[in-house]
Amino acid sequence: KVRVAVLISGTGSNMRKLIERAEQTDSNCEVVLVVSNKPDALGLEIARSFNTATRVNPHTSDRISGDLKLVKILQDFGVELICLAGYMRILSGEFVKHFPSRIINIHPSLLPAFKGAHALQDALEFGVKVVGCTSHFVDELIDHGPIIYQKSIEVEESDNIETIRAKIQKAEHILFPNSMIEVAKRILNKEI
Ligand code: GAR
After folding, report:
1. Is residue 129 within 8 Å of 153, Cβ to Cβ?
2. What residues does 103 pair with on adjacent strands?
3. Which residues contact 96 (CB under 8 A, 6 or more apart)?
């Protein structure tokens, strides 16, 4: 099985879905570690409730040294695939170089539109009629890299930011676990 780490900064609802999917009997991967850059991230509690190992790698003034500590933690756990599930810190090119085609991200927009930390708010302010979510491989640019899956959602007259956010999250909770399984399959088949 492919050894997976999930990186979080907050609630961890996507992380929970990844762990649950990996625990299904037909799964080709195993979530061996959850790392948060925030010590008080709610997701850490959830991970512990699944008996998944957790680590905190707090913000350091020097991004590279913080990222190299993270590399070491991931290597110690023999991690082969890294899932960014609401990890709200930009990873340095130095970090990405250590894990080519081994980092995937979930983002709440139809990339390449609306990158960044406020994607949904920006999309709604722009007045878009279709929103969505994207899973993609991570390269050294922000919210950038080859797309794995995408799902679009129409904005209805009766929607507000919270109802739309809930619809996007529901879609993410299917799309991201499916992406993890798909990428694990490619790793096991030595396609990447
Ligand atoms: C998710 O909606 C994810 O798409 C978003 O953060 C949320 C985390 O929720 N990520 C980004 O905006 C990355 N740019 P969760 O902690 O409940 O999984």
Report:
1. no
2. 82
3. 103, 138, 139, 140
DSSP state of 171: H
What is the distance in A from the centroid of ligand 1 to the CA of 15? Answer: 10
For residue 100, is the peptide bond before it cis, meaning its omega torsion is within 30 degrees of 0? no
DSSP secondary-structure letter at 116? S
Q: Looking at 58-127, which runs of residues are DSSP E strands?
A: 81-84, 103-107
Is 169 a pocket residue for ligand 1 (Cβ < 6 Å)?
Answer: yes
Which letter does DSSP use for residue 89 in this model?
A: S
- Predicted interface score ipTM higher than 0.90: yes
Residues 6+ apart with CB under 8 A from 134: 106, 107, 109, 110, 111, 147, 149, 150
d(CA 34, CA 164): 28
Kindly report, residue by residue over 127-172, the tens digit of the pLDDT. Answer: 999 999 999 999 999 999 999 999 999 999 999 999 999 999 999 9
For the chain, helix (H) and strand (E) counts, in that order, are 6, 7
Tokens representing 66?
Answer: 């913080």
Residue nearest to atom 9 of ligand 1 (CA): 86
In the annotation, is 59 catalytic? no
